Amino acid sequence: MKRRSSSDTVVVKGKTRIPKERHMNQEKYIGMDVHKATTVIAVLNNDGKIVAEGITETKGSTILDFIKAQRGTVHVTFEEGTQAAWLYDLIRPHVARVIVCDPRKIKEQNHKADKPDARLLAELLRINALNPVYHGERSSQAVKQLTASYVSIVNDGTRVKNRIKALFRGRGIDCEGGAVYDEKDREEWLQKLPDLGVRKRASRLYKELDFLLQLRAETEKDLVAEARKHPAIRILKSVPGIGSLRAAMILGIAATPDRFRTKKQFWSYCGLAVRSKISAEYELVHGRICKAKKHALVRGLNNNYNRSLKQVFKGAAATMASTKWRSQFEAMVAGGTDPSLVLLTLARKLASITLAIWRKGELYSEKKLKFKHAV
Question: How many domains are contained in the chain?
Answer without folding.
Answer: 3
